Fold these 2 entries.
Entry 1:
Amino acid sequence: MAGTVEKKLADMGITLPEPATPVANYVPFVRVRNHLVLSGQICTDNDGKLVAKGKLGAGVSVEDGQKAARACAINLLAQVKAAIGDLDKVSRVVRLGGFINSAPEFTDGAKVMNGASDLMVTVFADKGRHARSTVGVASLPLDAAVEVEGIFEVD
Amino acid sequence: MAGTVEKKLADMGITLPEPATPVANYVPFVRVRNHLVLSGQICTDNDGKLVAKGKLGAGVSVEDGQKAARACAINLLAQVKAAIGDLDKVSRVVRLGGFINSAPEFTDGAKVMNGASDLMVTVFADKGRHARSTVGVASLPLDAAVEVEGIFEVD
Amino acid sequence: MAGTVEKKLADMGITLPEPATPVANYVPFVRVRNHLVLSGQICTDNDGKLVAKGKLGAGVSVEDGQKAARACAINLLAQVKAAIGDLDKVSRVVRLGGFINSAPEFTDGAKVMNGASDLMVTVFADKGRHARSTVGVASLPLDAAVEVEGIFEVD
């Protein structure tokens, strides 16, 4: 039976993807006691296709960047579910780190990152309110528009 | 009554600003037990104005970058005080992450970041000696010259 | 007497360097209980010379980038040994953060970062399997091609 958080996701029309398997010698998450550290997730959709490719400020719009950030957040949730089985066991979204693939003159990274932050707060309410850092990076793996990493506290 | 750390700040002529309120769905800090995770702070002064705007290596000098990094550190301290009430309860500055808004050829990020590191060590002495990572990023929110995030251990 | 991990390193022909001393007001690691937070290490060899200098996608090949990432990982291990004395006390490599000095069009950062990840898994086996984030940054201190930071869980 789906928990409260997963019902919420279903109500929002969100199906969690199969969590992506890293293609290299690392893992999508490491749990140390109640601390769950998640690898950076790029903005793939449930078919593994990039939601937005390229740079903000050079072809990718803020709106598409927000969708990309939201996709990263969904991918983080898929990994959290793989790690702990039930998203209701998340006691706090501690931190998100947002990496925005940016042209040098792009300064709206915070708006883009809201696509990820808003999802967390919609889904987890107050438990979803997290610390975050947002920076514009020179490039990202596979030319993804956005990558988001996370730290969650879990029961 | 101000504690030892705040007296030190006053002696240095530093007044902590009103801690900035995030303009989005995130929070400036999350505390998990004795661990305080702080959102990236940009280099605003006590009036909310950027201390330095633009890129190191393309208009912003190393000296101005150092002032900007120092301002980020002061903003972190304002958030720490908001979180725990008394800066004397800081048992260790664990880590600072420095993001320097950089032209591609700028390689003096470490010098810039010293503006933040020096402040922490001046204020907290040995408790202020932290691990750090410094990287040059393609862009930052609002075109801030520097953003610094932090992890503090608190009583 | 060298422990299992150090024998493994010796078998691989790896001698740990003297751990680099930060040239500023920060420290190479901070330990909080069983949590070891390591400063970003750039890709210097045992003589302190950069293994690769400049940008991926603009002069530095993926192969040289991988060697650089591996050198960063070795430098992390030197710091871990300095912190805890015996690498056999590492219970988990929790997270690596990879910063790849990248031209804007370079998208193979994940391959580069494998140079660090592969070393950790070779040396620590399953304990070496870590969460990671890899991003392409605009510049790095001293124009290093790669910088890697880490979090280790230790006994």
Entry 2:
Amino acid sequence: MIFTASQIQAMDRTYRLNLINSFPGMKPVNLVGTISSEGLSNLAIISSVVHIGSDPPLIGFMMRPSNTPRHTYTNIKEANEFSINMVTHKFVDRAHFTSGKFSANVSEFQSCGFTESYIAGYHAPLVKESPVKAILSFEEEVHLSSSNSILIVGKIQCLWLQESTLQEDGNINMEKCRPVAVSGLGTYFQPTQLASFPYVGSKVKGLR
Amino acid sequence: MIFTASQIQAMDRTYRLNLINSFPGMKPVNLVGTISSEGLSNLAIISSVVHIGSDPPLIGFMMRPSNTPRHTYTNIKEANEFSINMVTHKFVDRAHFTSGKFSANVSEFQSCGFTESYIAGYHAPLVKESPVKAILSFEEEVHLSSSNSILIVGKIQCLWLQESTLQEDGNINMEKCRPVAVSGLGTYFQPTQLASFPYVGSKVKGLR
């Protein structure tokens, strides 16, 4: 079946939200950790983390400053710093719960049962429960004229992981970390490894 | 263990590529379909598709015009159109193979064993084998000053899916479509549903 742009436009808001949010397929699930100038920590679940570059190591994510998570945006601009923390099956329920609208004076770390951890020299709080996490310095924000969205870009300043999950080739072993993926706004998946393919070299001739 | 920015900078290039590309966790896997002004189709695997908005339905992805896939960028700018096609376990091997550097006069559809399909009124080729796909009009490109990357933003003009995979609430059923996820540059995962959580309402009191 085919939906045209005008049919999508005419859909019920929640129906359209579900459809368009599930269109990309499996999305990564991470928690963004920030702290306000008054020292109040904040934690928000995001499914839009995207790899931007490796040299320098740049990671981005989408946000709408006019919507939740408002505090995340303000905190990033104030502290010039944030953390990204991988979400696993062990605490995906509590991570999802950070998407609720909490009062400005309540930290989602406390409300949702996460433990703050810090690295000397940095302000942004990390999620102790997370097996892979990083402190990023705020590099730039890019406003999209086609929507009221912003791409936030950060540079990894400090990357924390368990030594046992790091492979010889630099890849993080996902069968050991067990991150979840999300479809739409709240359907979570546990991935199992299917196949690993090498880099495809230059000037290949085709499969057949 | 902790890697600092200078330690990451000093890593072997491939090691760093693997590490930083696997940092976000599970990434969506899609094929971008385009066509040149001479009528030659092109297909490129991407793991950076990101939901930007639902009203209007905007989808973005990252690319480096200076690197592969060059043809994709040129074609999008020429035709003002492209397609995004979900990758499943059935053809993930062939989808990965599109990342090879083929000659300019060879279509990855042919080289990698995919079937082109078209929707009347649009130019961009769709992947017949894909269970969820869309034609998008090119809306904007955003250059990042922190890297030589571009965020391409498209608006869904036509969304194609099998009726049996569409749920009553508008969500696409991933257990039926079975898209894969990718970690790093080439480790693919098959996700199984773990949990589905409702939207978290406003002014919640916390889990405890």
